[in-house]
Design goal:
This protein is of the alpha+beta class. Among the domains are: 167 residues, 2-Layer Sandwich (Bifunctional carbon monoxide dehydrogenase/acetyl-coa synthase(codh/acs), Chain M, domain 3), CATH 3.30.1650.10; 87 residues, Bifunctional carbon monoxide dehydrogenase/acetyl-coa synthase(codh/acs), Chain M, domain 5, CATH 3.40.1470.10. Helices cover 23% and strands 19% of the residues. The chain has a 4-stranded mixed β-sheet with strand order 4-1-7-6. Strands 2-5-8-3 form a 4-stranded mixed β-sheet, with helices on both faces. A hairpin with a 4-residue loop joins strand 14 and strand 15. Helix 1 crosses helix 3. The radius of gyration is 23 Å and the shape is globular. The termini are far apart. Bound molecules: iron/sulfur cluster (SF4). Iron/sulfur cluster (SF4) binds next to loops.
């Protein structure tokens, strides 16, 4: 317990899921346009240590069941703090908020989603001030280099929206700093275990050219984190011998994945969505999903609410992608990784991407190789896979060269999802991969007198 906070606060509450029916209210999330969280390192005289401010209505003044804008500004000061530390201090907002019983914090940066449970509200958690007290307490205890800290919550819709462009510009400045360095130039990568409370087998491997799945931690942030808190959840790892430069397989990465996933994941290919892909927790900004009918990849980001070109929405595919598993053809990615020359390089990179929401394609245009934007379909060009095939042929997309004959409609099925039942027992095939040229699905005719299932 933390003095003055009416609910339990501790590690045991991490990983608590709050479903819609259990929710009192939520801040951010897919229904809310403006939401963000940011940490700024400030000069000491501009931080009033221990102060929590709320600009706009507090929880107790907001109707239950609603979704509301939220901006979280954490300002810190201390002689050893550097601007480089901002990103990793910021990522701990996710971790510490999830220590609060009855509170669930998802995602990061401009995409946060905070839910308060009915139980938490009934227990007296009716003010953001309590969350402020928790953040003050945990940050200052866990990271003693923070000597002074103040927290401001913005809930007034106009105050959240008008600060958003500045906040986005700060994220972009951080990301830009991290561009340019290559994976070959460094001996050390970084690992992050922050999301293991939700996905126990998951470890993010952060390299100069493979930004963390959540889009919140660059290689430089990893380096700063390991320096600031060597025993913390972000750690340095020797990349070791390169076993496969195309797929991006390294001795040190495999060893770390094995150790940190308790043996569940022992091989990782950093630049491929097949074979031994990087695991995905649940915080990914987007998903690269394989479309077997055209042998290419679609990409969808969290903010795209409509069904994608394969008929599935982000939320449906997120269920197949998340959980710290290695799922062939469903790959959690950050938007920054899409700008990298290593982005699914082993699978063809952008020569293999066939569909992207127009919002993301517009945003990525300045970073893409020439001609890519013109030959990549969006929701404005096609509505389904048949249209997509025609579009790709008309634009002479490089993926067409892979169609030695008409695409076969080969389906990708991960064995993990196959419901195998034998003699009343459920059979789970671990790490099995089944490739078949043809899959025939037959409806089982009911036996005489038996109803249809
Ligand atoms: S997505 Fe990866 S890098 Fe980001 S917090 Fe989770 S484990 Fe860490």
């Amino acid at each position: 317990m933390i003095e003055g906070v009416p609910v339990d606060v501790g590690l045991a509450n991490e990983g608590e899921r709050i479903r819609k029916e259990e929710m009192h209210l939520e801040f951010g999330g897919p229904k809310v346009e403006s939401k963000w969280e940011i940490v700024r390192v400030m000069p000491p005289d501009s931080v009033e240590d221990g102060v929590v401010r709320i600009v706009g209505p507090d929880i107790r003044e907001l109707a239950g069941g609603g979704s509301y804008p939220l901006g979280i500004l954490v300002e810190v000061a201390g002689p050893q703090l550097e601007e480089d530390f901002e990103g990793i201090i910021e990522r701990r907002i996710h971790e510490y908020s999830n220590y609060v019983e009855g509170l669930m914090h998802l995602n990061q940066r401009y995409d946060i989603w905070v839910r308060l449970s009915k139980r938490g509200f009934k227990a007296g958690f009716d003010s953001l001030e309590y969350l402020g007290l928790v953040l003050l307490h945990l940050f200052k205890n866990e990271l003693p280099i923070i000597e002074a800290m103040q927290v401001t919550f913005y809930t007034e819709p106009s105050a959240v929206a008008e600060r958003l462009p500045d906040v986005l510009a700060r994220y972009e400045a951080r990301d830009a700093r991290a561009r340019g360095l290559t994976d070959e130039e460094v001996d050390t990568f970084y690992g992050c275990a922050l999301c293991q409370s939700f996905a126990p087998r998951h470890i993010c491997i952060i390299t100069p050219e493979r930004y963390a799945n959540c889009g919140a931690i660059s290689w430089f942030d990893g380096r700063a984190a390991a320096r600031m808190d060597p025993k913390g959840p972000i750690f340095a790892l020797e990349k070791g011998e390169c076993l496969d430069p195309v797929n991006g397989e390294f001795v040190g990465v495999n060893a770390t994945a094995k150790e940190r996933s308790m043996g569940e994941v022992d091989r990782v290919r950093l630049y491929s969505a097949f074979g031994y892909p990087h695991t995905s927790c649940g915080c990914f900004e987007g998903i690269a999903f394989y479309i077997p009918e055209v042998e290419g990849f679609g990409i969808v980001h969290r903010g795209f609410r409509d069904p994608t070109v394969n008929g599935l929405a982000f939320s449906t595919m997120a269920d197949s992608t998340a959980g710290g598993r290695q799922v062939d053809g469903f790959h959690g990615v950050s938007l920054e990784y899409l700008k990298s020359r290593k982005f699914l390089a082993a699978d063809g990179g952008w020569d293999r991407v066939v569909w992207v929401p127009s919002e993301i394609l517009d945003r990525l245009k300045p970073f893409l190789p020439e001609g890519v934007a013109e030959r990549t379909a969006t929701e404005r060009d096609v509505t389904g896979v048949d249209d997509l095939r025609e579009f790709l042929r008309a634009r002479d997309h490089p993926v067409v060269a892979r169609w030695t004959e008409e695409p076969s409609g080969r389906a990708l099925v991960t064995a993990e999802n196959l419901p195998l039942e034998v003699g009343g027992y459920r059979v789970i095939l671990k790490n099995a991969r089944i490739y078949a040229d043809r899959v025939i699905v037959l409806r089982e005719e009911p036996a005489h007198g038996e109803g249809r299932r």
